[in-house]
Amino acid sequence: MADGRSDPEDQVAVEHAATEDTASAPIGPLVERTYPLLVRIAAFRGARSADIRSALADAVRAAAAAAPQDAERVLFRSLIRSTHAVERAAHDETRGGDDVPVVPARQLERDGTRWEGWFKREPPVFSLLERGRAAAEAREAADGALARLPLAQRIVVVLRDIAGWAADDVARLDAKLQPDVQRALLHRGRATVRRALERVAAAKAPTGV
Amino acid sequence: MSEYEISCRALTELTTDYLEGAMSDRVRTTFEQHAVLCDPCSVHLDQIRATVRILARLALPDRAAAAALLAEVDTARG
């Protein structure tokens, strides 16, 4: 992940900007369009609002100094770098939890087939969480879970699942975020959010499926 | 027992690979066979799909806050 060192591509972008009229960079629409994503990347549980604003402002300044075609990439990359530094200073990155609610020792016999590892209980369906008042509760739970994700998972979930970026676009932000790594991070991140949603769903339908 | 049987634990670990289309045909077939036969795993897979849909609805426009941030940066730049 970002290590705070200057990135050669960013340096090129900044040098380019030094020869251009930076005031004309179309940074406003870009920031307006991406603001919710930027906040979700920068905001982790326990983060101070001043640190979040500082990271956002640094990223916007870097993007404004970049060539227009590089602005979006520089914006996210700078934000990730700043957030990483702040988050590392605030606390050690916590590991994503194990997402497998199973009892490994037990087996299920069903239609003549035994599956090793069985769910402790029937998982609740989520259809209830996508409509009515429960939808707002679900979004709130997902929001909270997102803020608790380690940065690398948060970046990938925000960019892939919320922003809808392609795996290749995310990989261009950081060479370490190759598609197979993204899948692992995405899986852990989604699993944490799923658990938060499951608590909401279980409260709504305590008897499960 | 199927030659390519996977456990519930393995299936839950493979859901993202499945949804991302990052599986061999053989593993995908095994995965789908298990998901069809196993109700909890089928629900689990639906939960992950619903999680992705709910996440996709989180990004709401916040133009006022974005404008405030831009104004703050502009002020700092002079």
Give a description of the structure.
The complex is a heterodimer of chains A (209) and B (78). Chain A is mostly helical. Chain A folds into two domains: 8-90, no CATH class; 124-204, Winged helix-like DNA-binding domain superfamily/Winged helix DNA-binding domain (Arc Repressor Mutant, subunit A, Orthogonal Bundle), CATH 1.10.10.10. Chain A is 60% helix and 8% strand. Chain A is built from eight helices and two strands. The two termini of chain A are 40 Å apart. The model of chain A is unreliable at 1-6, 12-24 and 92-107 (pLDDT under 50). With 78 residues, chain B is an all-alpha fold. Chain B has a single domain, classed as Arc Repressor Mutant, subunit A. Chain B contains four helices and no strands. Chain B has helices at residues 8-19, 25-37, 39-56, 63-77. The longest helix of chain B has 18 residues, at 39-56. The termini of chain B are far apart. The mean pLDDT of chain B is 87. At the A-B interface, helix 2, helix 3, strand 1, strand 2 and helix 5 of A face helix 1, helix 3 and helix 4 of B.
What descriptive keywords fit this protein?
heterodimer; A: 209 residues; mainly alpha; Arc Repressor Mutant, subunit A; 2 domains; two-stranded antiparallel ribbon; 2 strands; 60% helix; 8% strand; globular; B: 78 residues
